Known about the structure:
The protein is an alpha+beta fold. The protein has helices spanning 12-17, 24-34, 57-74, 76-82, 104-115; strands spanning 5-9, 39-43, 47-51, 84-86, 94-96, 98-100.
Amino acid sequence: MNGFMIYELVDTKMRDSFDLNSVQKFILEAIAAVYSEATHIRVFDSFYSFKPPVLSDAERNRRVRSLGRMLARNMPALTRLAMRSYDSGKHARSNQLFKAVKGKKRLSYCLELLAK
């Protein structure tokens, strides 16, 4: 994935109808606070991306969770509309607003836009 972290809204309907450019300020501020060393930060209509520094798996996971919490806290209206909750047998209920882009077709689309 060329070192990029690419995230989109979990809720498919909201992803198709909500323009993330309208909350670009919050996304940029959150990334700057959590990943001050990040480069190539970009926000598109349906996803955002950045290139983080090289981190251990544990540190990367900690920062990703921190970024997600900060975004959810700073965008309460979007959180109410697009947050997904998941039950887990062994853990507390989990809430998620954004997810990493992983699908081959979707990932190709995102990387194509990033290359422009």
